[in-house]
Every structure is written in structure tokens, then in C-alpha cells.
């Protein structure tokens, strides 16, 4: 029986990746819980918070949620990251960036253009998946 070094190395690297992703999902879950607590504090606080702060908190919450969903999907789909999840995360991150930093109109326009490009990429990706079915 011949020892296949390539298969052995790939197997070890896959285990390292899986362990790292499990650790990352635990850390992200802790951040998600922390963001939930912060969000609840915003809602029930007597202080006046700007709507930007509240919306930013909600979008950061969804970013953590999307990353955790991406890791779950990775393990459920036989160690494969679907492209559309990365596009969702990119769109959400750009929306957060527009909400947080909207002082420069040109930058906001560029971010909106980047969102448009990502939406088009998502459409193309979904069309390809629909054709497979």
C-alpha cells in the first residue's frame, strides 16, 4: 500500500481549517451576544442615541450573523463556501460603511456603485445556480 503524502497533507490542513473555523464561530457568537446586549441597551436606555448609532448596531449584528451562517453553510455543504454568502457579507458591510461614513458624497457614490456591482454579481451567480437546476 503506497503512502499518499498529498492526501495526508490535505487532510491535516483540512483539520486545521475546521478547527480554526470552529474557534472563529465561537468568537463570533460571543461578539453576536455582546452586540445583542448592546442593542437591547440602546432600546431600553434613557439616553438619547442617534438613529445612526442604532442602525449601525443592527447592521454589525447582521454582519456577525452572516459570518456565522457562512461557517454553518461551510460545514453543511461538504467544506465549501458558497460565493453568494460572501456577496451578502460584502453588501452588508458596504451598507454599514455608507451609514457610518457618509460625509463625502463621492465616497458614498463609489460605495453605492460597489453595492450595485455586488448585486449584479449576485444576480449572475444565482442565474448560474438556477440553470443547474
TrEMBL record:
GO CC terms: plasma membrane
Spans traversing the lipid bilayer: 12-34, 54-73, 85-102, 108-125
Cell membrane in keyword set: yes
Membrane topology type: Multi-pass membrane protein
Keywords from the named record: Cell membrane, Membrane, Transmembrane, Transmembrane helix
Source domain of life: Bacteria
Compartments in which it is found: Cell inner membrane; Cell membrane
Cited Pfam families: PsiE (PF06146)
Record GO biological process: cellular response to phosphate starvation
Family named by the database record: Belongs to the PsiE family.
HAMAP family, A to Z: PsiE
PANTHER family in alphabetical order: PROTEIN PSIE
Protein name as it appears in the record: Protein PsiE homolog
Species of the source: Bacillus wiedmannii
Amino acid at each position: 500500500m503506497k503512502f499518499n503524502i498529498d492526501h495526508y497533507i490535505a487532510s491535516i490542513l483540512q483539520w486545521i481549517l475546521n478547527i480554526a473555523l470552529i474557534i472563529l464561530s465561537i468568537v463570533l457568537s460571543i461578539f453576536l451576544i455582546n452586540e445583542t446586549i448592546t442593542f437591547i441597551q440602546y432600546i431600553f436606555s434613557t439616553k438619547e442615541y442617534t438613529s445612526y448609532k442604532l442602525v449601525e448596531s443592527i447592521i454589525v449584528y447582521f454582519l456577525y450573523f452572516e459570518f456565522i451562517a457562512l461557517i454553518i453553510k461551510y460545514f453543511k455543504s461538504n467544506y465549501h463556501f458558497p460565493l453568494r454568502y460572501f456577496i451578502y457579507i460584502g453588501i452588508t458591510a458596504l451598507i454599514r460603511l455608507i451609514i457610518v461614513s457618509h460625509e463625502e458624497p463621492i465616497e458614498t457614490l463609489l460605495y453605492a456603485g460597489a453595492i450595485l456591482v455586488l448585486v449584479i454579481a449576485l444576480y449572475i451567480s444565482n442565474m448560474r445556480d438556477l440553470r443547474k437546476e
